[in-house]
Specification:
The complex is a heterodimer of chains A (321) and B (272). Chain A has 321 residues and is of the alpha/beta class. Helix content of chain A is 36%, strand content 17%. The chains are: A alpha/beta (321), B alpha/beta (272).
Chain lengths: 321, 272
């Protein structure tokens, strides 16, 4: 790709719930990853994740050539060189791992996206729900919280279900009352959890149908670590779901951002241009990132800072891998 | 002819009233519904009787209403909360033509005919936006009891605009506004405004015909009353017993049955 051996590019995906980061070297190999809760100060979370990332790689900030951000908080990172919508990032990361994938499902903490891509990884269509918690990770998180489970417990727990309980409410708030009623009437928590997973997977497949439901399918986001959710989605799709390798599922957007950042940095360096250190002058966003996205204005409007808010007040530091 | 009871088991709170044979309030009780609706109904019934100084045998007829009406094991009859709120509202304000009931998990706008009958209704029961739960989210995020929210919101000087529809996301929006230095009263007023706007459009769906009576737990909230009057551009009837309006309506239906000489255990649903 490039002749410079010491090229390191960071991709940081500032989501509503988690901030994720991936460090790639010149050969597109993952050198380090990092993950933290976004909390209600996404800029601070991005800063902390960036520090985690360079220290996980055994590097310092000065070693990082280029920083590309994505996610709803992508404009809140002062040390970025560029920002890219998460749709483009997911599309490119996915096509890199799986050239046959045409439909991507990304279940986030506060939104859910179905993205149709072409053979070159260009975004052809997408549908987004970020207005209502039904069908997002928040729905499952709320149910889990009521059952006293952590998000990591959800999958293994639900797999023990024998008679999944039906969750008929659309609204995540009403579903909570339904969960309480189920518990009160003696239904096993694992059956309730599996019911919530079935409800969420149903909504997710509906969204995928609206972009055409073209095979193959892949899943991105934290749900890739939830075997019960993966199984429920595969059952509803009647087809397997491709999951990004090496635990990169939740980091898919960050990986895509790093990939695009690497391309751009390589081209700048090949042109003999100098790249300021992270935190220096911000490079102008190349317009072409969004030329393939028909409704890109809608996408950036809904992802613009200030329109959606982080949902968790706590800032628990967690690292991946 | 002794006494009659109305028990309104809502999603959030259970309300009970006892009326005497003249329809006068003899006792009432209110408690939060926690895990079990059946036990909540029993508890609120027991407390209502205690408040009235009565024994279960003194009650000639009991009508249950609300979301959990079928969980009321001791009720003689179940009546929808639409009918009960309409009945209660018309009993106190005979010129009521529209009832707005904002409860813990749903909001209803009910149109009343000239003889006090239910003509039409619109209900928000698919989404918690525009219901009392929206205030519940505020109460949770601000760590402040529900009754304090209205008075505090009235002190707002620069209300914040709440942009999220979803109650789940609104909770995090509140935290975000507070983190950015907005005052709690300004954030709260924004929350109230969001509910008022939604409820006003629900009222318009059944037709805004005066007089309008505001019932349900949220009717005790001064900020909500003020905002709704403003948004609907009309004054609202608000009863000091607005919270109990469903239970009172249920008890009035019980009174009809008691006067007609009916006793117990005819478990048929009275529809509109």
């Amino acid at each position: 790709m490039t002749t410079l051996p010491s090229l390191f590019v960071a991709g940081i995906d500032i989501g509503s719930t988690y901030t994720k980061a991936v460090l790639l070297d010149a050969g597109q190999s993952v050198r380090a990853t990092a993950l933290r809760r976004s909390g209600y100060k996404p800029a601070a979370a991005a800063e902390a994740v960036f520090d985690d990332l360079v220290s996980n790689a055994g590097l310092t900030r000065a070693d990082i050539t280029y920083v590309a951000t994505s996610g709803y908080g992508r404009y809140m990172v002062p040390f970025r060189h560029t920002q890219i919508t998460e749709l483009t990032c997911h599309a490119l990361a996915t096509i890199h791992h799986f050239p046959s994938v045409r439909t991507i499902l990304d279940i986030g903490g506060q939104d859910i996206k179905a993205i149709r891509i072409d053979e070159r990884g260009r975004v052809r269509a997408f549908r987004l729900n970020d207005k209502c918690a039904a069908g997002t990770g928040a729905f499952l998180e709320k149910t889990a919280r009521y059952l006293g489970l952590t998000t990591a417990d959800i999958g293994p727990y639900a797999l023990r279900a024998t008679k999944p309980a039906e969750i008929s409410s659309v609204c995540a708030v009403f579903a909570e009352s339904e969960v309480i009623n189920h518990l009160a009437s003696g239904i096993a928590p694992e059956d309730i959890m599996q019911g919530a997973i079935a409800a969420l997977s149903g909504r997710a497949v509906q969204l995928m149908r609206r972009v055409g439901l073209e095979a193959d399918f892949s899943l991105a986001g934290g749900m890739t670590q939830n075997p019960a959710m993966v199984a429920a989605l595969e059952a509803k799709l009647g087809a397997p779901l491709q999951l990004p390798p090496q635990g990169l599922g939740q980091l898919n957007g960050a990986f895509g951002a790093a990939m695009l950042g690497l391309r751009r940095a390589s081209r700048l360096l090949a042109d003999g241009r100098t790249i300021p250190p992270p935190g220096g002058t911000t490079t102008v966003i190349p317009h072409r990132w969004s030329t393939h996205v028909r409704a890109s204005r809608d996408a950036s409007a809904s992802a613009a800072p200030g329109l959606s808010m982080p949902r968790q007040p706590q800032l628990a530091a967690e690292k991946v891998g | 002819m002794r006494y009659v009871a109305g028990v309104d088991v809502g999603s959030t709170q259970a309300k009970g009233v006892v009326l005497d044979e003249h329809g006068r309030l003899a006792g009432s009780a209110l408690l939060d519904v926690e895990m079990n609706m059946s036990t909540a109904a029993q508890d609120v019934f027991a407390r209502t009787l205690a408040d009235a100084g009565l024994a279960p045998d003194d009650i000639a007829f009991t009508v249950a209403t609300g979301y959990g009406r079928y969980r009321v094991t001791f009720g003689d009859l179940q009546v929808t909360e639409i009918s009960c709120h309409a009945r209660g509202a018309v009993a106190e304000f005979p010129h009521t033509r529209t009832v707005l009931d904002i409860g813990g998990q749903d909001t209803k706008a009910i149109r009343i005919g000239d003889s006090g009958e239910v003509v039409d209704f619109a209900m928000n029961d698919k989404c918690a936006a525009g219901t009392g739960r929206f205030l519940g989210a505020a109460s949770f995020a601000l760590e402040m009891p529900l009754p304090d929210l209205g008075p505090l919101a009235m002190r707002a000087t620069a209300p914040v605009r709440i942009t999220t529809t979803c109650t789940v996301f609104a909770e995090s929006e509140i935290i975000g506004h507070l983190a950015r230095g907005h005052r709690p009263e300004d954030v709260l007023m924004g929350m109230h405004h969001s509910i008022a706007t939604r409820c006003a459009s629900l009222v318009r769906r059944v037709g805004l015909s005066p007089e309008i009576t505001f019932t349900g737990g949220v009717s005790r909230n001064v900020a909500m009353v003020a905002l709704l009057q403003n948004v609907l551009d009309t004054s609202l009837n608000v009863s000091a017993r607005g919270h109990f309006m469903g239970a009172i309506g249920a008890a009035l239906f019980a009174l009809d049955h008691a006067r007609a000489g009916h006793t117990g255990s005819a478990a048929t649903e009275v529809t509109l």
